[in-house]
Amino acid sequence: xxxxxxxxxxxxxxxxxALAGVAVEHHLLEAGRAASLxxxxxxxAAIVLASMRVAHHAEVLAAKVxxxxxxxxxxxxxxxxxxxxxxxxxxxxxxxxxxRDTIYSAVMLDINGILGLAALLGxxxxxxxxxxxxxxxxxxxxxxxxMGISMLVPEFVPQSKWHYYSAFTIGAMIxxxxxxxxxxxxxxSYFFSYSYPRAKAGTAASRLEDxxxxxxxxxxxxxxxxxxxxAEIMSGLLSxxxxxxxxxxxxxxxxVAAISASPEVMTAxxxxxxNRMQAVVNIALGASLSxxxxxxxxxxxxxxxxxxxxxxxxxxxxxxxxxxxxIAAAINLNxxxxxxxxxxxxxxxxxxxxxxxxxxx
Length: 361
Description:
Blueprint: H1 2-7, H2 9-31, H3 33-65, H4 69-90, H5 98-126, E1 129-130, H6 133-152, H7 162-185, H8 204-210, H9 213-242, H10 251-273, H11 277-306, H12 316-332, E2 337-338, H13 340-358
Antiparallel strand pairs: 1-2
């Protein structure tokens, strides 16, 4: 028992930080901007600690059940955190573009940040890294379709008829994801897997396969819940800390996207360095797709319930960045192997996204 607690000390520390945050959040908000920002930074640090354990147990499940099931559990957990944070933040005074900017930021972070850095580091260590190119093509066309329906077409929908299109978007996302999920775990599940050599005894990968499943499932669920609580506290402190400052308008959206993706980042980097690029593709592209196709219907349902529409149509700069990203992904992920050059192209696009965000674009 003590050994288990010691191994989960990072998650325990994050849980204690969440309890402390609940207790002192009100006092920090009253203490002013500096105290709020310090509190937000501490909550982010606690989220990173919890994410380390969530990433570890997601790797255990992935090693046990294989792709795509293991990485699908991780991406769905991360999207659940993101939806909860957005739902909480949208109940308060916030930007009408927060949902759009968060989804856009998540796609940039997942495809250009996670996939780019993983392919770059993995390519430098292993050279060309193989994966199943059927998965990349399927994910890419699904992401393009989902973003086109939910974040491009709304630009041309009259304001007086937004609720009709909002209801249609909810239905379209549900149908798309239902059919995709059936394909992913059904007869076409082989699209999302790749046959790697079995890990040698004594290696880190083999040790993951030897760990029990049930504790990993429990800790994964508890970890996501803790991250959700920490993120809710952090969002309140961050909003108070940056209010009235010259901080970029999309800062809150970037932070929300980064928080939800934090377990995925660590898992993807470890997979790339272990020469298991299929897991990286499933995490990066699967997380992007899940973010769009699951977040949009929940947020649109909230908009219909409250009668207050969100601004979902992307800005011209966002549209260009998404188009360039998906075109680059379609070219790079078309041959079943990644390398450092392909990783660098996406990581430069991620740096461009950060630069544009700093400029307020």
